[in-house]
Design brief:
single chain, 95 residues, mainly alpha, two-stranded antiparallel ribbon, 4 helices, 2 strands, 47% helix, 4% strand, disordered N terminus
């Protein structure tokens, strides 16, 4: 993976995952946390309260997730991330 740069402090998802057109998808630890809360049906405001950040920050992370996964809403993000193995299946049923 020579030539790829990652933002300082970014934690990559479990493994590199390729999309339909062979692009590697990498989510940061925080993007995975936000997506995991969204999967549980929480609103952006509820996720913000749980993670001690602003709603705007949550929406920023969600926008990054949508862009990386090439989707336009929460349901599509959930489906694509699960299919790609970026989030654990158990996250759907966690508290």
């Amino acid at each position: 993976m020579a030539g790829m740069s990652v933002a300082p402090g970014a934690v990559l998802a479990q493994q590199s995952t390729e999309t339909d057109d062979d692009q590697v998808v990498r989510l940061t630890k925080r993007e995975i946390e936000v997506l995991t809360h969204v999967i549980k049906g929480k609103s952006s405001r509820e996720v913000a309260e749980a993670l001690f950040v602003s709603k705007r920050t949550v929406d920023f992370h969600l926008a990054n997730v949508y862009d990386k996964l090439r989707v336009s809403n929460r349901v599509q993000a959930y489906r694509r991330a699960t299919r790609l193995g970026l989030i654990p299946y158990e996250a759907q049923y966690a508290d």
